[in-house]
Write a structure and sequence with these properties.
The complex is a heterodimer of chains A (about 325) and B (about 280).
Chain A lengths: L3 E5 L6 H7 L6 E5 L3 H4 L6 H4 L5 E4 L7 E2 L10 E4 L3 E2 L4 E2 L4 H4 L5 E4 L2 H14 L5 E5 L9 H4 L1 H10 L4 E7 L5 H5 L6 E6 L3 H7 E2 L4 H13 L3 E9 L5 H15 L5 E8 L1 E3 H10 L10 E2 L4 E3 L2 H16 L7 E4 L1
Helix pairs in contact in A: 11-13
Chain B lengths: L10 E5 L2 H10 L2 E5 L4 E5 L4 E5 L4 H14 L7 E10 L7 E9 L2 E5 L12 E7 L12 E3 L2 H11 L5 E9 L10 H10 L1 H22 L5 H7 L4 H17 L15 H13 L1
Helix pairs in contact in B: 1-4, 2-3, 7-8
Classes of the chains: A alpha/beta (about 325), B alpha/beta (about 280).
Chain lengths: ~325, ~280
């Protein structure tokens, strides 16, 4: 899978770095001073790098935990996100990472303890306050779990802080970690989902939607709380029928009481990201409905967004309590 | 000779000495087209050029710059540096593709893209560029006198993934350098031509992907010839035509344009249609 590993001199000898390196016996390890030497050069092409991504092991220096962008959290509580990794094993056409980074190489920050310290500081400020910590914005943590053991490390950590909700956003069907650990009441395993035919075109390298649903069922039966994330909602011909079928398929398998929350989000990008995506996927019909608004954001026409949100909400209300719904973006 | 000819294919070789370049010149049927300030060779039909830079980092940058201008190379041109090197941990005759480039003169290191290593089974090595011929080889890796400067400049004028450095080991500790003559060098390169070709084939496949990404949508050039669009209008037009061809593959966008329409009206017409 990975034939080149770049490792910062500062961390190459650490236990975590060595643990990861040992999983790639045939990879060449190249020492670097700072990850930016490999990750940041301009003139790199994300799509070409995606053909043969390298792994970069580095130390995160600052900014371990960040406030979640406005509109991307759960309700009114304090929402934070943290990224121990940039870039993803999957290759979803609409993924903002390919617009955000020059490099498709997998960048893993191995100093997990620094993240934990920062999270503890935030929790310590008000131990009674409910807050959410999201992971999976800049990578799919669960998909990379066999390499990083990130969740094996952070699930026991969050078990100590019941007022802190830990959301793992994923498309992965790897369930080893959920078998190894007892279900954590303050953890949400949040699955990104879209109609199967759309996913076949757009969610490249990701498990099929039916496999994801099967895995959700398995995890839910183990007692884990589930998040359903229909974000982004994708507009296409026949979208109503496709989303109705998706919701029916999910709730045929998953008991409503396993569901922690359901979120709906629109497809939107900053203009510069979108121009790159169009270059990468000139034949994408799904992107042909997107427009620039007066704030420089590319999205569907407001009427389309409203119609999709409204329709999906009503459909989902057939199966789930509307109090569990929230919007993203 | 590569059989991967396609529209936009473009390759530049930067090689220090004639002996190192001889087999490349023969293999790609290159003919000399300039002698000063650097000897330059090119293929008559395909966009493949070669410059003989001479030894050293200043020569390498100067020759690369010269070839860049003279051959009108684009951002999507492949740049290859090939040459003989010394090493303590490789055998004479081995070909290596460089994955890390350092120089004692500069703090920054360079890391050629892993995309260029995919599926070619060529050994990889770090490269240490020095200013005087090296005999001691204190570190593992290969030693040359041009690679660092070549890569530093080439990555600025081309896509990062299209710049590659290849080296063939000619000397190891104890080698009598006086015995490395022109014929010996030509033989070293000749033996490795199949692997060199393989590296180039991989780079050509990356180049093809890049060219496809940057291709203008259908009818873009025709419409731009009909009306004078501003730069930002051209960006918008390109976006609309890209969306148009995926949404309305059977509809010709030219038929939407009426005689007296201004550029803004044309863009609005496309936008309105795409909104439906």
């Amino acid at each position: 899978m990975v034939d080149t590993i770049y490792a910062e001199d500062e961390i190459i000898g650490t236990k975590k770095a060595q643990e990861i390196i040992s999983k790639f016996r045939h990879a060449k390890v190249i020492s670097i001073k700072r990850f930016g030497e490999v990750f940041n050069p301009s003139n790199q092409n994300f799509r070409i790098q995606k053909i043969n991504p390298a792994l970069i092991l580095a130390r995160k220096q600052k900014g371990f935990v960040l406030n979640a962008p406005e509109g991307f959290g759960i309700r009114d509580q304090d929402n934070y996100y943290f990224s121990h990794m940039y870039n993803c094993l999957y290759d979803c056409s609409y993924c903002f990472l390919q617009g955000m980074y020059n490099s498709a190489n997998y960048l893993v920050f191995v100093n997990f303890d620094d993240y934990k310290n920062e999270i503890e500081k935030i929790i310590g400020k008000d131990k009674e306050k409910e807050m959410t910590f999201f992971t999976g914005y800049d990578c799919d943590s669960l998909a990379m779990e066999p390499i990083t053991n990130f969740l094996s490390d952070f699930i026991p950590f969050f078990r100590r802080y019941k007022n802190a909700l830990f959301e793992i956003r994923t498309k992965s069907i790897n369930n080893t970690v959920f078998r190894k650990h007892d279900a954590l009441t303050n953890c949400i395993v949040a699955y990104s989902l879209m109609p199967e035919t759309l996913a076949q075109t757009l969610d490249k390298k990701a498990p099929s939607v039916s496999a994801r649903i099967k895995n959700i069922k398995y995890i839910a039966n183990k007692g884990w709380r589930i998040g359903l994330r229909f974000d982004p909602l994708i507009y296409c011909n026949n979208w109503k029928a496709q989303y109705s079928e998706l919701f029916a398929n999910i709730f045929k398998e998953i008991k409503e009481e396993s569901i922690h929350s359901v979120s709906l989000g629109s497809l939107r990008f900053p203009k510069s990201f979108f121009n790159k995506l169009l270059q990468y996927y000139p034949n994408s019909e799904e992107f042909s409905f997107l427009r620039s608004n007066d704030k420089g954001i590319i999205s569907y026409d407001q009427s389309i967004e409203n119609e999709m949100n409204e329709y999906c909400r009503l459909e989902l209300m057939k199966y789930s309590d509307a109090r569990k719904f929230f919007s993203c973006g | 000779m590569t059989n991967q000819n396609f529209e936009g294919m473009s390759v530049r070789w930067v090689i220090a000495l004639k002996a190192e370049a001889e087999e490349i010149i023969k293999n790609y049927a290159l003919e000399r087209v300039a002698t000063k300030p650097f000897q330059v060779y090119k293929n008559r039909d395909i966009d493949i050029w070669l410059v003989l830079s001479g030894i050293g980092q200043i020569n390498a940058v100067a020759a690369t710059t010269y070839l860049y201008v003279k051959s009108d190379a684009s951002d999507n041109t492949i740049w290859m540096n090939l040459g003989i090197v010394g090493s303590r941990n490789f055998k004479v005759g081995e070909l290596v593709q460089i994955d890390k480039i350092t120089s004692n003169d500069f703090p920054d290191n360079h890391y050629p893209s892993p995309a260029t290593f995919k599926n070619n089974n060529v050994e990889r090595s770090n490269l240490i560029t020095v200013n005087k011929p090296e005999a001691l080889f204190e570190n593992d890796g290969v030693y040359d006198m041009e690679g660092y400067a070549f890569f530093s400049f080439a990555k600025k004028i081309a896509s990062y993934e299209l710049v590659s450095v290849l080296k063939i080991i000619s000397d190891i500790p104890g080698t009598d350098i006086s015995k490395i003559d022109k014929i010996a060098v030509e033989r070293l390169v000749l033996k490795k031509m199949p692997l060199i070709e393989k590296v180039l084939e991989n780079l050509l496949s990356l180049q093809e992907i890049l060219l496809l990404q940057q291709r203008n949508p259908n009818y873009f050039d025709e419409i731009c010839q009909q009306r004078k669009f501003s730069f930002s209008q051209k960006v918008t037009l390109k976006k609309y035509l890209t969306q148009w061809q995926s949404r309305f593959p059977m509809r010709n966008p030219l038929s939407e344009i009426e005689k007296k329409m201004t550029t803004s009206q044309i863009l609005k017409r496309f936008s309105d249609n795409l909104l439906r």
